[in-house]
Amino acid sequence: MSNTLFDTAPDFSQPIAVLKHCHDRIRKQLQTLQKLLEHLPLHGADIDAQKAAQAVLKYFNHAAHLHHEDEEQNLLPMLHATARDADAALLQELAPGILAGHEQMDRDWSILKSQLEQIANGSGTALSAGDVTRFCDAYAAHMVVEEGNIAPMAKRLFSQEQMAQLGSAMQVRRGITPVLPTSQVPEQHTKAVDNTVADGVVLADLRLDYGRASLTENDVLDDPIDQFGKWFEEAMHAKVNEPNAMSVATVDADGKPTSRIVLIKQYDQRGFTWYTNYDSQKGQQLRSNPHAALLFFWSELERQVRIEGTVVRTAAEESDKYFYSRPVKSQIAAIASQQSAPIANREQMESNYDAAAAVSGEHPVRPAHWGGYRLDPQRIEFWQGRRSRFHDRIVYVKQADGSWVKERLQP
Ligand SMILES: Cc1cc2nc3c(=O)[nH]c(=O)nc-3n(C[C@H](O)[C@H](O)[C@H](O)COP(=O)(O)O)c2cc1C
Question: Does domain 15-173 have CATH number 1.20.120.520?
Answer without folding.
Answer: yes
